Amino acid sequence: MTIQPIRSRDIPLARRFAAQGMHYDWYLDPGWKLEMYSLFFWHLECRRATRLYAAYEGDALAGVLLADMKGEPKPYDTVWRRALIWLVQKGMALVARGAGNVYDAANGELLEQFCREQNPDGEVVFLVVDPIREGQGVGTALLNALAADEPGKLVYLFTDNGCNYGFYEHRGFVQSGLREITMVFPDRTVLLQCFLYSKRLPERPA
Fold first, then answer.
1. 132, exposed or middle or buried, with CB in 10 Å at 0-12, 13-18, 19+?
2. Which one of 126, 150, 164, 165 has the largest count of C-beta atoms within 10 Å of its C-beta?
């Protein structure tokens, strides 16, 4: 397995991994709405990221990690990406009708509570693995790549019970906050548990 920049042609694959691993279908039916949200979420997290790692097995994309580390430049925060996010946000507001605000508010409360006692150095904003490669060390390899570049840093991440949050627990992350929320969409109601996990990345070996 190699860690390298993601190839442009593989970005749709990364979005597909996220849609499956994060269960976008809990909120949206397959089709243009789900595709629009997938596009929005990828570009939103890319805009925030200071580091991007892609794992490849041979020629095949196996997973992607994006991190936002304090004080580092954001190379993917471009004007065209901001414009695209703005346009898609307008469309998503019509579809979700404020349901996403409940999720964002819960995460904001979790982070505020966490920062009362901790001073994190960054956030893992996106971590996805090819579903057929789960359990094969892809996610661990991506986290190790981040740790190699950011040794000793305290990082946190948001996740929920629609994702494989046990993965983080098995890799030393500690659950540092929990909120239960109800997201009301025009055609469904989704009950979620929102989590904040944190970990101090290991120091670089001597």
1. exposed
2. 126
Write out pLDDT tens, residues 14-61. Answer: 999 999 988 888 888 888 888 888 888 999 999 999 999 999 999 999
* Helix (H/G/I), strand (E/B), else coil: 199: strand
Q: Which two tokens stand for residue 94?
A: 């019509």
User: How many helices and strands (H and E) does the chain possess?
Assistant: 6, 7
- Of all helices (H) and strands (E), which one includes residue 104? helix 99-115
Report whether 63 contacts 130 (CB < 8 A): yes
The structure tokens 């971590």 sit at 127
Per residue in 150-196, pLDDT (tens digit) is: 999 999 999 999 888 889 999 999 999 999 999 888 878 889 999 99
CB 168 within 8 A of CB 157: yes
Separation between Cα atoms, residue 56 and residue 133, nearest integer Å: 11
DSSP 8-state symbol, 25 = G
| Mutual angle of helices 79-96 and 99-115, in 10-degree steps | 120
Question: pTM here?
Answer: 0.91
Domains defined for the chain, CATH in brackets:
2-200 (3.40.630.30)
For residue 164, the one-letter residue type is N
